[in-house]
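Entry 14. Ran structure prediction on the chain below.
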Amino acid sequence: MQRMRWSHVPLLSLSLLLAGVTVAAQQPAPPPIPQAILTAKKVFLSNAGADSGLFPHPFTGTPDRAYSEFYTALGAWGRYQLVGDPSEADLVFELQLSAPNGPTNANKQNGASDPLPMLRLVILDRRTHYILWALTESINPAALQKTHDHNFDDALTALVTDLKQLTAPR
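Output, structure tokens:
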């Protein structure tokens, strides 16, 4: 009886191995990142502004806060040379802070939710003006001004991290 069980082990192992190969073969390759994003050296950062009603409450500062802080973070990263004119750039990064309209106190059981302010970075090919990629980070809600500002900074940091991951060598 013991001998019969062990005789099935090679067959079972081969079956599991082939099943694993089949599953691995069925998983699609990740979609390619546009080459222009991976090879760009010069970037123009475009300030697409902020929706009204976000400054000075719930966020401190001015509507240019996201642009200023993102510009500083890009410069500190050092991956791109920031240029002052889009005609000198390989890519245009368009940054916008928006607060979309949506349901307020809607029936959350039916899938409705209150929208959160968000930072959206659109990456455009400078020559063609085509959108190559877009990254979005929501800003979590808060009750206190200090926490709103902290959540703003967290979302901005996450957006920079998203960009770093997108452009990382594969």
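Strands lie at 42-50, 81-82, 91-98, 118-125, 131-138. Will compare against last week's run tomorrow.
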